[in-house]
Amino acid sequence: MSQDKSRAPDQRIAVKGMSGGPKLASRVNTGLDSSETIFNFFRSIALFSLLDADEVAQVLRICTIETAAPGEILFDEGEAAKSMLILEHGEVTVTKRSQGGQVQIANLGDGSIIGEMALIAGAPRSARVKAVAETRFYRLDGRHFDALRRQRSLAAYKILLMLLETLGDRHQMMLKRVHELFAHPEDHIEIFERHCRELIERAQRALE
Amino acid sequence: MSDNPKGPSRERKRMARPSEREIIKALSFNRTFVGLDGDDFSPFLAETRLELFAEGAPLTSRGDVSSSGYILVSGCVELTTEHMPGRRASRQHFAAGTLISGAALIKDWPQDQECVAVQETYALELTRSGFKKLLNTGNNVAFRLLDELLEGVVARVSAANQLVDDIYSHPDETLLLLRARAASETNPG
Q1: Is the pTM of this model over 0.95?
Q2: In this structure, are residues A81 and A122 in contact, taking their beta carbons and an 8 Å threshold?
Q3: pLDDT computed for residue B163 by the predictor
Q4: pLDDT in tens, A59-107
Q5: Would you kindly state where each structural domain of chain A is located, as residue ranges?
Q6: CA of A174: which chain B residue's CA is closest?
Q7: pLDDT score of A208
Q8: Tell me: domain A11-207, CATH 2.60.120.10, correct?
Q9: Quick one: closest CA in A to B137, which residue?
Q10: What is the pLDDT of residue B13?
């Protein structure tokens, strides 16, 4: 993965309305054309939807912008999770190791959040993320975010509140899936038989 | 504040209603709130309502959608969680400051736990709107509650992930389990 050539990795970005720091985001090559566009971009993402302009600016101060060429791995399954990525532009695939090789579990594009667990849990990355097109993204470092949280920053807590909502939704979805499975076992036997056959076929292909 | 206990009435001596000072003292012993002072607790207490639950009274029931969470002040409650149909685990909590039904402070999710007072219990009821108001004013008690909720949800998502992983990565064992359950449903005897 490559750092954006137009900026040093520790440079910070600013948006209109913030106090101190560089005046305007468009002076650095963020890919987005103005500070207002950057603010609107962040506000359009659920995780940042509660933040005002000053709070977005606070978050941007601890972000770096990076780019990845098609085929580059942004992070790999099992690696230590140290940052969260916010996809500004491009496309990535999310895959998990399986008996038959890498299995694609998602395809993500503009405005996607990747690896958000890095902000709250020290668990290793649960999947591999690879760019499939020229991709630009913001990297929010977990240690910098922790520092913001320790300072009792409202911006950090608003992000955590939305993160909690996302994780809660995910938890509810998983519970529903498990409950449906065991509450109506007869409806799922056929699906599992098919799943077994697919696994065996994948393993056989991998051995060939 | 409510002086009438929720749930079945009992002919026995009522537990003394704790004062604000006693509540603060009790909560500050909990690791969630350690280090906080009266300035942090006062706005929080102003947003809560002290409720008395009689022995056997439910604080939350499974499947309920509620917009209030509870913070235990005194007494004891039993929390029962159903991980999958037919597999339940219960645990008793008596520490002041224990957060019950915390998920209700975030969103309208159906409760996956039931909570019953096993003796007369005082708990502070905090509404979702009250919680979010406290958060927006930068109240430290609300920040600590959010920290606590995050810790809990990370553990629960991780346990659920493990469960889903076990189910789908060992399909042959899952298949056996499903067949056994389907057979016992067809022929319960």
Answers
A1: no
A2: yes
A3: 78
A4: 999 999 999 999 999 999 999 999 999 999 999 999 988 766 788 888 9
A5: 11-207
A6: B160
A7: 57
A8: yes
A9: A154
A10: 57
For residue A121, list chain B residues with Cβ-Cβ distance below 8 A: 154, 158
Residue A17 pLDDT exceeds 50: no
Percentage with pLDDT > 70 across chain B: 87
On the question of pLDDT at A120 being above 70, the answer is: yes
- The H or E element that residue A113 is part of is strand A113-114
Question: Smallest CA–CA separation between A26 and chain B, in Å?
Answer: 30
- Residue A118, both tokens: 């890095």
Return the residue in A192, A196, A200, A201 with the most chain B beta carbons within 10 A, the one to mutate for interface testing.
A192
Candidates A126, A115, A1; CA nearest to A65 is A1
CA distance B104 to chain A (A): 11
Give Cβ neighbours of residue A197 (< 8 Å, ≥ 6 apart): none
User: A138 - beta bridge partners?
Assistant: A65, A86
Contact status, residue B63 vs residue B111, Cβ threshold 8 Å: yes
Interface confidence (ipTM) of the complex: 0.81
Mean pLDDT of A187-198: 75
Partners of residue A83 on adjacent β-strands: A141
Amino acid identity for residue B56 in this structure: G
Q: What is the C-alpha to C-alpha distance for residues B157 and A110, in angstroms, rounded to an integer?
A: 26
pLDDT bucket at B166, cuts 50 / 70 / 90? confident
Residue of A nearest to B184 (CA): A185
Question: What local confidence, expressed as pLDDT, does residue B42 receive?
Answer: 96
- How do A83-89 and A113-114 pair as beta strands? antiparallel
